[in-house]
Write a structure and sequence with these properties.
This protein has 869 residues and is α+β, with helices and mostly antiparallel strands. Helices cover 54% and strands 7% of the residues. The protein is built from 36 helices and 16 strands. The longest helix is centred in the middle third of the chain and has 34 residues. The radius of gyration is 31 Å and the shape is globular. It binds zinc ion.
């Protein structure tokens, strides 16, 4: 039913119309009506469960429809025009909770009835509810006191209609509030609803994944006390409960426990491989980027070494002597001096094997180094721990590889910097192992030793370093701004004081450059985004990374690490977006978001992958955006056979299925590589097994939505829309387009990572880049107060599509302006663009003309933009 209502609303362009508007928030009619509908249903459901009303099936349907239709009158052009006039300062504010007149409702009620009855035939038996719905809605704006109701000349047609009037009105008021605290203080006057109470939880800062853990933990505290979450804001949640129930005091110990448990479940248990990958940094820089992930449990340690052993540096290479680096040649010299009897190829093989083994040892000793440093940071006796760790490593290697301990004890410190001449004793020691002769067996044994030694280190870690999740959860708990136990506030203040007076990093009391909290870390700057990201707090134009370090707090540092755990390959996300509701979200819209998130993440090619903006532009120009699901012909998949082959091969490599991929498919045909599998697939001769199929599309779509609590979605991308060396403002146009598509798909506001903290207001679907170069584009798109407004979303999508496609056609004809083509097109006369194309190509450029038309669609809109400015 909810899906049908959504489609019906979209058909009537409710997503481009206003329902709510003020200086801080705009909400589309579609989002508002769907949410009021769903919230009404949740309220009724709870009332029914508490036996305050008899929630029959008929009443449930009725409340859903009444909620959906309660503002239907606002779809009128005259109302929408009045809102626009008001927002531009040309008119008075249109009445918001004004009565919905019957004559305004009828034009929507009748078509909806037909639409619903066509799709859901049993609805025909409920014919009488439509009159009741109209009654409830027309009465809804009226005064609530008993006298007014009894004197009303239009008597209620039924008790159900009365209940709907009351419940939907409450849902409407709740869904119109700006913040979680305003919503929870809505007064509950009414026969039925006065038996309820509202309460809420709220956080002071939205950090991303960490905040989702916190929201989820808070929710479980309330549900445990008999309350039910019904409405979600990005920074908080509204709950209903019985009027006589006691509002839970948040017990911070329980809250912390709950956060920790959720982190363990979502991270350690569900994603050991990603945790392992995110733990690893880079052999040449910080080898172990997140030791707390590596040491979290033994499964992760196992996955970690499996992953490391497949890295190129960990496998012997077939290089010739002159292809090796200087240090490597020095090692060769030393080895040769020891092995005068052997021929060159034997010596080279030994060298290659040793180099790979030594790299693996570097990784192991880097783990030890992290253990020692973290012990020092935690105030433990790091010297003692260092000795203990070395002993553990030496004993384990000696035992598993059957090498005399005394030899291993003479090893130098093992690191990337270890001098060539000092590496020889290590090689000599390894040769002592009885397993060394057989390279395959040796590899197995060495891995076993490394894994075992790491488990040994993990034991020491757990014994001497405070649990990271507990530390994080404790810090996170002080983000809770409601409800707070006064004792917890005091505790928080004390914690802060200790941090400030101790000045943990020796940098005094610097503030976190992300959230403004106390910065405890001079963070591994490389975590904070790839080289493409500029940070406001750095010297203008300088890139994060390298020598530039930014100071952040422990929470912000951990947040960055966490995000990479949600990437399929544990890498850093390329970019991050927030999908947030227009105001707030209800249960049904949350389910809808989940559905859309799955569709874009595992899209099998019915839609273009989101990062491919050219394809999306074509898609939109050709037919607009369809609603999900869009079953297209299989043959018109947006993924080519070659792309599938590549993704399948990637997975095969990861799973260690070298040369035989038959176990990935059903039936298990002979397949030696990804290409073979992809070819079978396109001939329909076999199917990928489900878990592999999902993974193939996950890799191809390059998106990772994180949705651990209903309040908002964090969307990470693996790839980018940018071309190499593309100017920043040109890329900004494509990212704007990308956000608009997302906003349309989710019927929600989409913000880039940092804007969630910067934007005090949400005035539409997404923000327009603050960039002087793009000013004329802003005018063309009708940007208002820095936003793509609700009515302008689809126009913006069409125009941006046209712009992107003109640019694409120009490069196809080799008539482009190089990297800055998109920017040049912003102000170029259409005629001159055409001349450029025709100069290169004799044919009549039909496509380019139609795109240019769409881009310029008459002077009318350009003038309109000027008027607004
Ligand atoms: Zn911070």
């Amino acid at each position: 039913m909810f899906g049908a209502l959504k489609t019906f609303g979209e058909m009537r362009n409710w997503h481009l119309k206003y329902a709510k508007f003020n200086w801080r928030t705009h909400q589309s009619l579609l989002a508002h009506c769907l949410n009021v509908s769903s919230l009404s249903y949740s309220l009724l459901d709870y009332l029914g469960e508490q036996q305050f009303v008899k929630a029959t099936d008929k009443l449930r349907v009725q409340v859903l429809l009444t909620g959906f239709l309660h503002d239907a009158g606002k779809e009128r052009g005259s109302y929408q025009q009045a809102v626009e006039d008001f927002l531009c300062g040309r008119g008075f504010e249109p009445l918001d909770f004004g009565h919905q007149q019957e004559m305004d409702l009828r034009p929507v009620v009748e078509p909806l009835r037909t639409y619903v009855e066509d799709r859901l035939p049993p609805m025909r038996d409920l014919g009488s509810i439509w009159e009741e719905i109209v009654w409830s809605i027309t009465q809804m704006g009226r005064r609530e006191d008993a006298g007014a109701v009894s004197h009303s000349f239009e008597r209620a047609p039924s008790n159900d209609a009365l209940t709907c009037k009351e419940v939907v009105h409450l849902a409407d008021v709740m869904m119109s509030k700006l913040g979680v605290d305003d919503t929870a203080s809505v007064s509950l006057n009414g026969q039925t609803i006065s038996r309820l109470q509202l309460t809420y939880s709220k956080v002071s800062v939205v950090r991303g994944v960490l905040t989702q853990f916190l929201h989820a933990a808070l929710e479980s505290q309330f549900t445990g006390a008999g309350f039910r979450p019904v409405q979600w804001f990005p920074d908080g949640t509204v709950y209903i409960g019985r009027a006589d129930a006691k509002v839970p005091q948040i017990d911070s110990t329980k809250l912390i426990e709950s956060v920790v448990r959720k982190m363990q479940d979502v991270l350690d248990k569900s994603r050991p491989l990603q945790m392992a990958k995110a733990a690893y940094g880079n052999l040449r820089a910080q080898v172990i980027a997140a030791p707390e992930f590596l040491f979290a449990n033994n499964d992760i340690i196992h996955e970690f070494w499996q992953y490391i052993s497949k890295q190129r540096f960990a496998t012997p290479s077939n290089k010739k002597l002159d292809e090796f680096r200087d240090t490597e040649r020095k090692v060769y010299q030393q080895i040769s001096d020891q092995l005068t009897g052997k021929d060159e190829s034997t010596r080279l093989t030994l060298l290659a094997r040793f180099l790979a083994d030594f790299n693996l040892l570097i990784v192991l000793y880097a783990a030890r180094k992290e253990l020692v440093e973290n012990a020092r940071y935690a105030g433990s006796d790091s010297k003692k721990i260092g000795e203990e760790a070395s002993k553990k490593i030496q004993e384990t290697l000696a035992q598993v590889l059957e090498i005399p301990l005394a030899h291993i004890a003479t090893w130098p410190e093992i690191a990337l910097q270890t001098k060539a001449e000092r590496r020889l004793p290590v090689a000599q020691t390894l040769w002592l192992s009885p397993y060394y002769r057989d390279p395959d067996e040796w590899q197995k044994k060495l891995l076993e030793a490394l894994e075992k030694a790491t488990i040994g280190l993990a034991d020491i870690w757990r014994g001497s370093i405070p649990d990271k999740y507990v530390a994080i959860a404790r810090l996170l708990a002080s983000d809770v701004s409601h409800p707070l136990d006064p004792k917890a506030i005091l505790e928080t203040v004390e914690n802060l004081n200790t941090v400030i007076t101790e000045g943990k990093t020796g940098h005094g009391t610097s503030t976190c450059q992300r959230c403004g909290g106390v910065a405890a870390y001079e963070a591994q700057a490389e975590l904070f985004g790839n080289s493409e990201i500029y940070h406001d707090n750095l010297v203008a134009g300088s890139r994060v990374g390298g020598g530039n370090k930014i100071r952040v707090c422990e929470l912000c540092e951990f947040e960055e690490k966490l995000r990479s755990v949600f990437m399929t390959r544990g890498q850093e996300p390329f970019s991050t977006f927030y999908i947030i509701p227009h105001l707030a979200i209800s249960r049904n819209q949350q389910l809808d978001w989940q559905k859309v998130a799955r569709e874009i993440m595992y899209n099998q090619g019915q839609l273009p992958p989101l990062l491919r903006v050219n394809r999306w532009a074509e898609f939109i120009i050709e037919g607009g955006i369809p609603s999900f699901p869009t079953p297209l012909e299989k043959s018109s998949s947006f993924f080519s056979e070659k792309e599938r082959a590549w993704a399948i091969q990637e997975i095969a490599d990861e799973e260690g299925l070298e040369g035989d991929l038959s176990s990935m498919i059903d039936p298990p045909l002979d397949a030696k590589d990804g290409k073979a599998v992809a070819s079978y697939l396109s001939k329909g001769r076999c199917k990928l097994k489900e878990k592999y199929e999902k993974k193939v599309y996950e890799i191809l779509n390059r998106l990772e939505p994180i949705y651990l609590s209903p309040n908002f979605i964090l969307l990470l991308t693996t790839g980018t829309v940018e071309n190499q060396d593309e100017p920043e403002s040109s890329a900004a146009i494509k990212w704007l387009f990308f956000r608009c598509v997302l906003a349309r798909l989710f019927s929600a506001t989409v913000l880039a990572d940092d804007s969630i903290r910067e934007e005090g207001a949400t005035l539409g679907y997404t923000t327009f880049p603050l960039n002087i170069t793009l000013r004329s584009l802003g005018k063309k798109l009708g940007v208002q107060k820095g936003w793509i407004s609700i009515p302008n979303l689809e126009r913006a999508l069409k125009k941006l599509s046209a712009l992107i496609l003109v640019s694409h056609e120009l490069s196809n004809e080799q008539a482009d302006y190089g990297n800055a083509t998109l920017l040049r097109l912003l102000d170029e006369e259409p005629g001159r663009v055409l001349v450029r194309v025709t100069n290169k190509n004799q044919a009549y450029p039909k496509k380019v003309i139609s795109y240019l038309d769409a881009w310029n669609d008459g002077k009318r809109n350009v003038l309109r933009g000027v008027e607004y400015a």
